[in-house]
Prior knowledge:
CATH class of the domain at 95-213: Alpha Beta
Number of strands: 18
Shape: globular
Distance between the termini: 4 Å
Radius of gyration: 23 Å
Strand content: 15-25%
Amino acid sequence: MKHETLHKLKSIVGNNRLATAREELLCYSYDGAGREYLPEAVVFPESTEEISAIMKLANSTPFPVVPRGAGSGMTGGALAVAGGLVIALSRMNRILEIDELNQVAVVEPGVITGTLRETLQARGLYYPPDPASLKFCTMGGNVAECAGGPSAVKYGVTRDYVLGLEVVLPDGGIIQTGVRTAKGVVGYDLTRLFTGSEGTLGIITKITVRLIPYPASRKTFLILCRSIFQATSLVAGILSKHRPCTLEYMDRTALEIVSGKLPFTPAPGTEAILLLEVDGDALEVDIQAASLGKFLATNNDLLAIMEAESPEEAAALWSARRSVSPAAFSLKPHKISEDVVVPRSRIPELVSFTEGLAAEHDLTIFTFGHAGDGNIHVNIMLDKSLPREVARAEKARASLFRQVIRLSGTLSGEHGIGLTKAEFLPLELDKTSLTVMQGIKKFFDPNNILNPGKMFVTQCHKKNN
């Protein structure tokens, strides 16, 4: 970036909150997608007004701007593919308000999701969205990607809890969207528009979320299955009669790579497991658990049905489940991690297809994820130093996406499109829909300075501003 541009940025945030040294920039050059793009500078604002001033400068100069939370996203959403400036929101990390009477919280985008949940639990309140990275991902990133998590099967995803937003637009303008009330239908629903927009339309600086009472009781069950087909086929049957708060699936490979974290040794012959929880008041949970036990007892061929005997044992099971993604690197140095979704009844077809892909392309492919809402994480393991293996992996990925669409599914349930899936968007969206979306982007960001190269396939060139 030009010296003049850097000088103006320093005048906005001060010398200590602008990074330009290469060793500092490297820390913001990658995210969970495993790709790397070096920004030209990183700025650390502490207020909405500072971000507004930065965007006014960026829009008039112009130069690209990429908003960034914790960098835990899996599709390259926080990567500076066109160079320019990364706005790191880590300093805007305050819980501004918890309104217990109206069950509403107001937070800044840099608040860690797990921190918010823990703070609320102490007050008997609950914010249900629980992505696997909740101990370090941020609320701003969750809203930008419309994050999900295991609890989505009962409670829904991030967009179901966002009541309103404060957003800085690409030209520096500041808007307030949404309401603090249970109802509100005045004007277009801009809150939903920005939720899941992946930082392409504006920078979220304040988030108002609705809360619910914290569930008083919870029981955790583990179902050991003889085959992947048995496990995935059981999902639709469970959900036809029961409403668990989580229903997770792991295949044998996923189970093996986290076996050291499990509080037990899986029975011989275990090919897949279901991790299931029910919650509510104590009486409700007892009734749900008894009903679930009766239903599962009719499936005589299950290897075992186990209930966590303590909160510590349940926590250990969840620690293992949340460790699957990082533990995958024990298999290969790199992975392609996809979060496709299909109707629950078609999960067996999807998993069977992935097994065929692995054999066809001579790859290690394993599956796990949120079976309760059909959101299956398909992990294609590879070594990027082997060009032929990379080529096979990319072919498998393209085949996976085509099959998901054939199964009436969607390309992403919670990771978003970002950089890594942009070329596949036309598989799911018709030409008119794409034109409308691109028109919305152009209306908000005519100079294409905000997170360019994400969601839509475009040519991004680094500029020396």
